[in-house]
Write a structure and sequence with these properties.
This protein has 314 residues and is mainly alpha-helical. It has 12 helices and no strands.
């Protein structure tokens, strides 16, 4: 079992090692309040990372999710101010994200423009368009039932956590047991071979970009209800957090290899580094350096795997 999942095992060991150090040096890290705040801060990252995993498994990438997140957040607030019930406001945010993701997917799969070019342009264009539309103003005067989904803070947090875990678990199950999941892996492994086996790689690519947009909208909605105002610059840097977590989790940047279990562990590992440094009394500026070192090590191991093991299997 351990040999079949070396990356997941390594990440689990690293997380347990950090937890052991904190248990001795900074037991306050494990207080209920801190753990709840830590989980809520990383729930949006996990939801978006589920979609990003699918995109990278197909051999593509989406660096516009931060801008999509901002637009969906503002859309959720505006729809709620228009009087839509909270479930419909949430669905509207997901729909807004899905439309933006579908636009990316159409350009990548239909026009065959490299995804890095499409999503880089989308990242800038969407962010600037939102800034021009809102003039940088936050969405304020939200209805009373918006914050915490109109319920208590603990209940809202439990609902958010449950939705995130349900999305992650259902997608992980689908990737292992459904033909659609196998199509994603096949597309990333070898698009031509997938086509010969009856899979339509371009349709798969379009679908995963659309799904990622919808998941980004969902993450934006559940993040927005934590506050009584919605900033127009939400989601800045989210794309880097998400992509880093997915790559650290073992999803190959070339596609076709990786798991959502690894993605979950990647989100946990990168999510606890900053708070752990704070509790240990270490300058928080080291967080980016440590994350960069982890990512560099991960990519190096992937390159070594591709250079040594894959030719042997061929």
């Amino acid at each position: 079992m351990l040999k079949r999942h070396p990356r997941e095992t390594s990440l689990a060991v690293a997380i347990l090692g950090i937890a052991a150090i904190l248990a001795v040096a900074a037991p306050g890290f494990f207080s209920l309040a801190n753990q709840r705040d830590l989980v809520m801060a990383n729930v949006p990252v996990l939801i978006v990372a589920v979609g990003m995993t699918l995109v990278i498994l197909t051999g593509e990438i989406d660096i516009s999710v931060g801008s999509q997140f901002a637009i969906a957040s503002v859309a959720a607030g505006i729809f709620a101010k228009w009087g839509l019930p909270m479930p419909l406001a949430g669905l509207s945010a997901c729909l807004a994200g899905a439309i933006l993701g579908a636009a990316n997917g159409a350009l990548v799969a239909g026009a065959r423009i490299p995804s890095i070019v499409v999503t880089l342009a989308a990242m800038v264009a969407l962010r600037d368009a939102l800034r021009w539309t809102t003039q940088g103003a936050w969405v304020q005067d939200l209805p009373p039932g918006f914050q915490w989904l109109g319920t208590s803070q603990p209940n809202s947090q439990y609902i958010t956590m449950a939705v995130a875990l349900l999305l992650w678990a259902s997608t992980a199950w689908a990737m292992r047991h459904l033909a659609a999941g196998r199509a994603v892996y096949a597309t990333g492994s070898h698009a031509d071979a997938a086509r010969l086996s009856g899979i339509h790689p371009r349709a798969v690519v379009f679908a995963v970009f659309t799904a990622t947009g919808a998941l980004t909208g969902c993450a934006a909605f559940f993040n927005s209800v934590r506050f009584n105002q919605i900033p127009a610059n939400a989601g800045i840097g989210l794309e880097l957090q998400v992509i880093a977590a997915v790559i650290v989790g073992g999803v190959a940047v070339t596609g076709g290899r990786g798991s959502l279990a690894g993605t979950l562990l990647g989100v946990i590992l990168l999510g606890i580094i900053g708070p752990a440094l704070t509790f240990l009394g270490i300058n928080a500026y080291w967080e980016r350096a440590i994350q960069g070192a982890i990512i560099l090590t991960t990519v190096s191991l992937d390159a070594r795997y591709a250079r040594i093991l894959l030719p042997q299997r061929a």
